[in-house]
Specification:
Blueprint: E1 15-16, H1 30-34, E2 40-44, E3 47-52, H2 55-62, E4 67-68, H3 96-107, H4 112-135, E5 140-141, H5 142-147, H6 149-159, H7 166-177, H8 183-206, H9 212-221, H10 228-259, H11 261-269, H12 274-285, E6 293-296, E7 300-302, E8 305-307, E9 312-315, H13 317-320, H14 355-372, E10 377-378, E11 385-387, E12 396-402
Parallel strand pairs: 1-2, 3-9
Antiparallel strand pairs: 2-3, 4-6, 5-12, 6-9, 7-8, 10-12, 11-12
Helix pairs in contact: 4-6, 4-14, 6-7, 6-10, 7-8, 7-10, 8-10, 10-11, 10-12, 10-14, 12-14
Length: 403
């Protein structure tokens, strides 16, 4: 692979961020050379920030209290184009005791026990979607008919959102995370989503049911531990993160397996490979490509770079998870690799609370597709694969398949 030389960072000339991909199946090629040296500064929409690309450096920052997740602090490198008002992104953009307090409330709904209990219902949903896929026309767009719908249905049922609202929320969450839409369009989608969740939570307070929002309302809001607006923000986070990331990770995972037919066949003949395959595919794609950011609240030296208080920091997860010093041959999917050290879900106090749920959904979905559609393959049509460009989470617009 030819690597484009990285120009030395100076005040006059900084590389632009996000960096372009020359191949849609790989992270930006500049990362390979950047990992050979200390973090560098890059140019962002609001000024400049440090770009951290090595696995060890990224992992170190994720547990270092000198780096804050508070997006209201000066210097924070904002990627999602929403007003940086306090608590807008719930506990993901908080630090310290308040982050821990709200996160603990959320984690009561995302424990390993709850995930195991949810698995049978997810399996039924997957079977239903595969049934619909089989009955429908071929070729079929797997993104529209399966990979986006499954996580939407799962998180909607967990929250207690009516299934008939699934399509609207898929569109709203994509609009909120877009980098192509105008700030006014993004904010409009954000306001619409917030208004809906506000009303839904108020109804849950009056008529609680067996769902996540009802339990949080009756357990924490009713006794004053959790403010209504904080629960709205938490629900918004669950809804966007709960389907957006899993949907696109699933689509890309299927694509990887279909690009090399031997991988699909290995899974078909060795079911024990599904769990490690999920970890390897999470590592390989690392779809949260450019929204893992921090701001320094104290001076720190990281990987040979002197980062000063108030400096923004970008953590390049795709680069870290392709670091050859940790994952030899990281530019290819290897189902025999031990990928358990990947940081696709983060690391430390901000580790993704939905990690176990996402892993379960991915494994159940892949098992069903491989088991029921063993001949699944890319359709021989123009633009069978279309990648999303300029988005917070990498993914696919379409994946046209047949069987």
């Amino acid at each position: 692979m030819t690597v484009t030389p990285v120009m030395p960072a100076t005040e006059e000339r900084l590389a632009a961020w996000p960096m372009p991909r020359t191949c849609p199946y790989a992270p930006p090629e500049a990362y390979a050379e950047l990992r050979e040296g200390a973090p560098v500064k890059v140019r962002i929409r609001t000024g400049e920030a440090w770009l951290v690309t090595r696995y060890a450096d990224v992992r170190a920052i994720l547990v270092d209290p000198r780096f804050s997740s508070d997006d209201t602090l000066p210097g924070f490198p904002v990627r999602i184009q929403l007003p940086p008002t306090p608590r807008v992104m719930s506990f993901t953009r908080m630090d310290g005791p308040e982050h821990g307090r709200l996160r603990r409330m959320a984690m009561t709904e995302f424990t390993a026990r709850r995930t195991r209990a949810l698995r049978p219902s997810v399996e039924l949903l997957v079977d239903r979607l595969v049934d619909e896929l089989e009955r429908g026309p071929r070729p079929a767009d797997l993104v529209a008919r399966f990979t986006v719908r499954l996580p939407s249905l799962v998180i909607a049922r967990m929250l207690g959102v009516p299934e008939e609202d699934e399509c609207d929320f898929t569109e709203l969450s994509q609009a909120v995370l877009s980098q192509d839409a105008t700030p006014a369009e993004i904010y409009g989608s954000f306001v619409e989503m917030t208004a809906y969740l506000d009303g839904l939570i108020r109804r849950k307070a009056e008529e609680p049911a067996d769902d996540l929002l009802s339990r949080l309302v009756t357990r924490y809001v009713a006794d004053g531990e959790l403010a209504h607006d904080d629960l709205v923000a938490m629900a918004r986070l669950f809804l966007v993160a709960g389907h957006e990331t899993t949907a696109h990770q699933l689509g890309l995972s299927v694509l990887s397996l279909l690009r090399e037919p031997g991988l699909w066949d290995r899974l078909r003949h060795d079911p024990a490979l599904f769990a490690p395959a999920v970890e390897e595919l999470l590592r390989y794609w690392s779809i949260t490509q450019d929204n893992q950011v921090r701001v320094a609240v104290d001076d720190a030296e990281i990987g040979g770079a002197r980062i000063e208080k108030g400096d923004g920091v970008i953590l390049a997860y795709p680069s870290a998870n392709h670091d050859e010093s940790v994952f030899p041959g990281g530019d290819r999917v290897d189902l025999d690799r031990d990928a358990s050290r990947h940081i696709a879900f983060g690391h430390g106090p901000h580790l993704c609370p939905g990690a176990s749920l996402a892993r379960m959904e991915l494994e159940v979905a892949l098992r069903a597709l491989v088991g029921r559609l063993p001949g699944l393959r890319l359709a021989d049509v123009p633009e069978a694969v279309s990648f999303r460009e300029n988005t917070i989470n990498y993914g696919l617009n379409s994946l046209v398949v047949t069987w």
